[in-house]
Batch of 3 targets.
Target 1
Amino acid sequence: MEQETEAYVSKAAALMACVLMTLSYVGILYAPTLILRLPPPASLKHYLIRRFICAAISSIISLIFSALILPIRSWETSNVLGVYGIRADHMWQAAVFPLFLTSLMYAGSMVLKSLLLLNSWTTDMNNSGGLSLGCIKIVLWSLRAQMFAVASNILAWRNFVVAPLTEELVFRACMIPLLLCGGFKINTIIFLCPVFFSLAHLNHLMEIYSAQNFSLLKASMIVGLQLGYTVVFGWYASFLFIRTGHLAAPLIAHIFCNYMGLPVLFARNRGLVSVAFVAGMVAFLWLLFPITRSDLYNDRTNNRRCFHGYCSWN
């Protein structure tokens, strides 16, 4: 992880490209009202759909922009997509292993959710006179209703589809190959790339500032917590992308983290939650490098002029 990749793009050009993509990702969200002078959206749904379209356009622009800068030697579709980690090979490894690794950080959260769910089921069974076919039907119907509620929730589409996909495309798939081809060390990229990722979330400051009755202190504390979380997650997502060379790895981790929220460290009168959290973190650190070995996700791991062959994809 300490190697320095051979430079095919100047470091200044790589950094400037990352800055421009960050500004584009945030700025285009405000283009409909500030540039196109469109009227304010009539509802939250229309507002988010407009933002979905803007984020998609920004992602496409970033993909094209970075492709023009990267020294891609073969313009076959599979090769170009492979530069961005968009691959069909080793898909199950890129999905299952990072998901399992990420879930270890949420061992405490999952134990707490399981305990609450068990208590709820126990209460329902007691009210219905024990376990019966009717009780099972009620539970299944409740799960089905929750799934439909999530699928029809516009905020769920933002948190679990649009935001993870567009953010991983821009801040991992586009930026990391550029920084690698700029000759930056791997460790430097892992810690540098999340800086752009966190800066892209500064646009929430004014929104939260208004929501908090124009309290700058409260808004700054909330945004500061968000930035800290995005930086830490950005380190992890960048690590996954570089180690696996597969965009699916950080994408699935991103979706899972958005679903789970912040990890639960402890819960009142439930010491098992803290034990599970500590055990999960120990297991996470123990498996971090073994479960992200490059050979688990790639057939070719030798004769690459830069990491995962981003600069000389043959």
Note: Confidence is low (pLDDT under 50) at residues 303-307.
Target 2
Amino acid sequence: MKGDLLLLSSVVLLLRAVGCCPETCRCHPASGSVDCGQRGLAEIPPDLPPQTRTLYLQDNQIHQLPASAFRSVPQLTTLNLGNNSLSTLAPGAFHGLQHLQVLNLTQNSLRSLESRLFHSLPRLRELDVSANNISHLATSLGECWENLTVFAVQQNQLQQLDRALLESMPSVKLLFLKDNLWKCNCHLVGLKLWLEKFIYKGGVMDSVICVSPDTWKGKDLLKIPHELYQPCPSPSPDLESSQVQLGSAHRAVPRSPESHNAGEQDHSECELKPKPRPANLRHALVTVIIGGVACGILCLMMLAATVYGCTYAAITARYRGAPSAQTNEPEKTEGKELLDSSPA
């Protein structure tokens, strides 16, 4: 009897070792999916089946992800962590997920993303970090995003987006950027030019609506002519050398009101400033065409008047010459008769 109990307990332990379904989750072995959504979880369940390919952890209270948080499910292809309370993601949180293709991090409390966070996801195709508090995205985030086709960052606190980050996604087809704090100044010209090229190649995106400055508030970035952007001022070499020499001691010295105002003035130079709009080529062409047509009509009228005048003069001369010819003919006849009747 004791031997049977020992055998049964060994079988149970063995089944748990190969990965039984956690008590708080529902597992579907046929599809390889595990649903742990809306379970009030505060951390990742430790006993997930290793053959899991789809893991649903949305609508919980998970606050952070430690390094190698999903080492027990290396075959994972889809991971949904939406609508949690995530505020911290360890640099190696997704380490070991070589097959992950879809990652959903929407509706969390993320303020930033560590630059190496996604470097262990070479097959990632869809990334959604919408509805967070992200204010900056490092350019190095996209070093392993060659296969990324969907990128969503709407409803965050982004003011700028480096063009180099977008250029690291050569396969992206869908881009969602709306509802951010876009600052449409000279630093956003690179993003504008990249988006125009992206749309020209068939890419699909929503919109980039300017929040500042007031000149373009509420305007679509793509509808603002890039000619209206002033080039960003480059820092002077003297200023850079002085900053290097002063170092941290310079940063510790409080700034005077005059220097503060000067700094604000330099910063304002980078803002988007309307300048006189260049002449519209279409209007110029229309003006040239109208002028050409008017000149052509005038020339035709002058030609018609000349032809009419010449014709009138010829007709008049013809009719005036006909009677004189008729009167001269009888006079010649009479002179001939007088010559004939004279004596020989």
Note: The two ends are 185 Å apart (CA to CA).
Target 3
Amino acid sequence: MAAAVAVPQHKLSETPNSRAIEIHDWLITASTNSISNAAECDALQNHLGFTLPEMTFGSNYLTLEHRTSAWKLTFDARGALMGVRRGELQDGDGGVKVGYADAWLKSRTDPGTSLPLPTTVAAKPYDWTYTSVYSGHHPNTETERSETPSSASWEDADPEDSTHDIPLAELTRPDPILFYAEIPLYEDELHDNGSSNLLVRIRVMPTCFFILARFILRVDNVLFRVHDTRIYHSFSSNPPLVVRQVSGWEAPYDRVKRQLPRRNDLTPLTDANWIAKVLSEMPVEASQKAGAGTKWRGLRTKLEVAVLNKSDP
């Protein structure tokens, strides 16, 4: 029998719209709210310059703050949608076309549509699938989307260093969960063409915390696409070390459909966990090189680390 894991001192707090945990040198806050109202949507849409997803949770966020180093990381809808291509798609954007995509896009951007745009925003083309390779941002930098925080930078992991990896054995142990949250950022049904959504999950255990930010795209009869960001930190690492693994996969719709456990049961095709499992277990040549033929730049697996040193006094 495995030895019991000691639970470190920690403090939980809660407000009507957020929950937080203070543990070791960390303050972790998750806020979940209703879908953004009309005024909030207008403001965000004005900033982004394209029509928002049908369900945008503009007030939701997850923030991590390491107090000793002043290192911060945030996940929110604004940051995620800033990663969506605005304007004509370019090489590497992974553009997806369906038979009536142009008509669908016009229905969402035409000033005469029943889905009104703010009068200050000109109708422009954009990636109608809302694909984003967003992996969080550092709010203490000049630009919200910068990947270079003030106190630490992401660097390529050392494949020879075992601490520069995410220990699956630790994450699968039945340790007590001190804090858990699911934070939806956006979702859209692509005008009945499929589904696009981004969901962030975090769990804090006695020895570590783990985050999974997962973007899932299903375009019916065309393709499936997944972009995962996994973030891991061991409270015992010294100096404090954060590990980030970013992965993207895609495959043609029919190839994934052939993996169904029961041929006539299509339910798994709407199960994000099942889709991600199927895509991630395919040969790399299929899911990260060939993909669905879109040449999407997100097809990769990249492992990075950030060493958190003490901030200057």
Note: DSSP finds seven helices and 13 strands in the chain.
